[in-house]
Design brief:
Blueprint: E1 17-20, E2 23-30, E3 34-37, E4 49-58, E5 61-74, E6 80-84, H1 91-103
Antiparallel strand pairs: 1-2, 1-4, 2-3, 3-6, 4-5, 5-6
């Protein structure tokens, strides 16, 4: 649900995680234009642009999608919010698909 009247739907997908600086971090939520990554040790300062990988289930395997984003917020609880410069126009469709799959009980994370 869009609890805060945001432009883009936020998805809390258990099947999606992020790899930052070689470390797998859980994703608290993700949208068409941004992501909130938990447990990111020593994140770069706000305004920093960088790339990271998001891992998503695709059929029988897990695929990594390289994404470039800018750090827009570091929360007191350690979560880091990034606004995407990429991943592209198919990203919202993938998020909707994964959300529907998880709601049906097929995309549970590890």
């Amino acid at each position: 649900m869009n609890d805060f009247n945001r432009v883009n739907q936020r998805y809390s997908l258990t099947s999606v995680d992020a790899i930052v600086a070689g470390v797998v971090c859980p994703v608290q939520n993700v949208s068409a234009t941004g992501i909130l990554i938990a447990n990111w040790n020593n994140p770069p300062p706000e305004g920093t642009t960088g790339s990271f990988a998001v891992r998503t289930p695709m059929g029988d395997k897990v695929s990594s999608i390289e994404i470039t984003g800018i750090v827009v917020r570091i929360q007191d609880d350690g979560a880091v919010a990034l606004k995407f410069e990429t991943p592209g126009q198919d990203w919202p469709k993938l998020l909707e698909f994964l959300d529907a799959k998880e709601r049906a009980g097929e995309g549970e994370g590890d």
